[in-house]
Please model this.
Amino acid sequence: MTSLDMIHRSEAAVSVELQTPDMTLNIGPQHPSTHGVLRLVAKVDGERIQDVEPVIGYMHRGYEKLSEVRTYAQITALVNRIDWVSGFANEVPFIIGLEKLMGVEAPERAQWIRVILSELARISSHLVFMASYPLELGGTTPLMFALREREYILELIEEVTGGRFHPNFNRVGGVKPAYGGGSTTKKQSMDLPQGFFQRTSDAMDRMDTILDQLSELATGNEIIKMRTVDVGVIPGDKALEYGLTGPNLRASGVGYDLRKADPYLTYDQVEFDVPVGRDGDCYDRYMMRFLEIRESSKIVRQAIDKIPSGPLQAKVPRVLKAPAGQVYSRAENPKGEFGYFIVSEGGKMPYRLKIRSTSFSNLTILPWVLQGQLIPDLVAIMGSLDFVLGDVDR
Amino acid sequence: MEFFDGFWIQLVLKVAVGLLVILTGALVVIYAEVKIGGHMQTRIGPYYAGGRWGWAQPLADAAKFLQKEDLAPDGADRKVYGFAPYVVMMSALAVFAVIPMGPDLVGADLDVGVYFVLAISSISVLGVLMAGWSSGNKYSLIGGLRAAAQLIAYELPLVLAVVAVVIQASTMSLNGIVEAQNETLFTIGSFDVALPYIFRGQIVSFAIFMIAAVAELSRIPFDMPIAESELTMGYLTEYSGIRFTMFFLGEYASMIGLSAIAATMFLGGYSVPGLEGVSANLGGPIVLLLKVSVLVFVILWIRWTWPRLREDQLQHLAWRWLIPLALVNIAVIAVFKVAF
Amino acid sequence: MSDAPDTTAVEPNPLEKWAISLADRLQAEGAIVEFDTVRIAVARDQWVETIIAAREELELFSWLSAIDWSKDVAVGEGVAEPDELVERFEVLCRLSSVQSDAGAIFVTTLSKDDPSIGSLAPHIGGAEWHEREAHEMFGIDFIGNTNLIPLYLPDDFEGNPLLKSYPLISREVKPWPGDVDVEAMPAKDEDGDA
Model:
């Protein structure tokens, strides 16, 4: 065949000749962008992903089996380690479920403190997202700004509970008396630290400033928009089919927030908006969390105004025994709906504890949404789903 | 001084001084990147090595790399793997041979200086491809292929931007281009005013050149080949020790080199208004250094501020925006050159 | 705050009314409401159809899991009355609505001899991983799920960890220290709460 014939061949003929086999690329478990030890076995054709199979379980700690041999008080200490980024928020649904089972109602002040700490946990989790997501896209600076602000939040949480990431602050019937242990019947109150509300209020003011800074640096940036708009679109019905909840679901247009739909604690006494997206692409998921920080700071400010004085914990028996029964309780975690299904046979330990972890359900959609995407988009999409491997693997 | 006129003596001196200056410059730029980047991110940056300012940090890093074990992955093609860093380093350093620092301070005053620069700097593509392929690692391969596509795509706007300058200067020699910018345009009182090309209609070429230069350097926002958060280090993943240092220094050396080319062609190079003879040779390098510093600072600034473009968006920018713009720019410059 | 488990003698409250009407609409076997949690009992061979029909109203697929009701308990406490226990598996699936706070857990019973049930994975994409987890933790076979490879456990793992008869290695090595809520602090009174 002469060289002239080669040149005149059609495009289609040439591309058929050049059939190259797919390459199997193993992404993780040690990788800068898989939020923990997630392994993706991807079949790629050049840069385009044909098929991806997530392999999880590198962090499986056996929470559900362990809970069968722990008393309820011991489980309370363990559960904040499931989704370690939003520590306090993991304990809340468990305690609410236990209180339902035991028929105990926490006093008003304790409920409001739980609300404040849950919202601080939400802000903290979303700030981690604001730090790590632009980093995965290549922008190195929002990382420092967001984590610097997060330090203020973590200091507040540490002041009250003693732990930055693992508060272990909830007790059945209320919250732990703040300054160390002690019987709750003592007249001397072990309440929140002096000046806590003032410092929290200042931190919320800082939140507004950092959101403006991040808005210029990251949210309004052309390149971020190019990388995230129309990337990884998840339609609303697919999201419902796969069990997506939280900001991921709201970005796809389904305005479902448990704080409004099924209010728990004192969320029905505060006013806030729930941002709802439209397209279900990465940019919407990013904006959801961005706007939710503002809403959370509103809730915290209202809570500081409305919190009554009173006891921190209701009277509960020394040895916690739950009556026989099955209860499912859920709460709006920063990442979505987090629930516990407690099966109790009347003893000190649950017969079965099923943990409905948000990130596990959020991750099930990954093979579907990554079909046919480019490798850089894989990083953008995984980052926008905002999962934590501790939550996925339990 | 006859001893210093011998060919070999001149050669050795020029090479020695040149290498010293370039490598020191590269170390300074490395320090500036981490220090300035640190302050932009409201943190301090290097702090311990060398007292409070941390100025010895690049020296400490270089010492660390030099004492590392000479590793090569099992599946790597050793000959190619070992040779690739030197290709990249060589192409980065050779550019400095033609950059004039003063009217007489130039390594080799070639008539085709511009042509030489563009040709030599494009050899680094080969080095990058060799590195990506021979590492025996799929991530490196992807990084290497991305690099090849990106670097080849952005060669064209680079060349076309330079063509516009060559048309206006009517010469391909870098000394000649600087002298052309020294032409008196008009006189105010007893002052002969000469303007660098950036103010004489080459602003578009300057913009295209700088964008293409950042892309040629594989720096953010064009660092898909390295893409730290996706490919770990792209084509550099398997490199460590001295070989990594070669790549690293080569990148910073070519940053200085491309900035120096841009300063020479667009900002007037070494020329200081009103200086002739020996004082021009003394003041020239300082002026060039200042101009290069400004350009390097802008490149560093962009790196710390923006995220990275995706590969197809990169290509889109090059082929559908920069190249047509550069072609139109050439046409306009040519028309103006002929008409006026 | 807690509802009585048995609702036949007393006028049912709104949640119970809704649960009974849901069970009627889906032709399920029954509804139990306790502690604000609705459980709808479904026959084993009606499992897939009932869930798919229920998704018209409760669109969000939340989770799917199982419970092992067994007398052979290796660790932890068993059931309250072991003599009255019928050994079985229960498969649970929780669906909730996104328009309101409605939600229900659908329960079906599998016998220990034949722990298999139709799979929801071909109809509900999200169920695939939950079924994989239930399969490897309990040994339940989901007919129709083509991807029942282990999810969490290593490939060479033997056994089904969440079965009651599966021991915990740490308890084998060091026996349960007994009923101590919290150890006494040195030179201080023992506190009741941990």
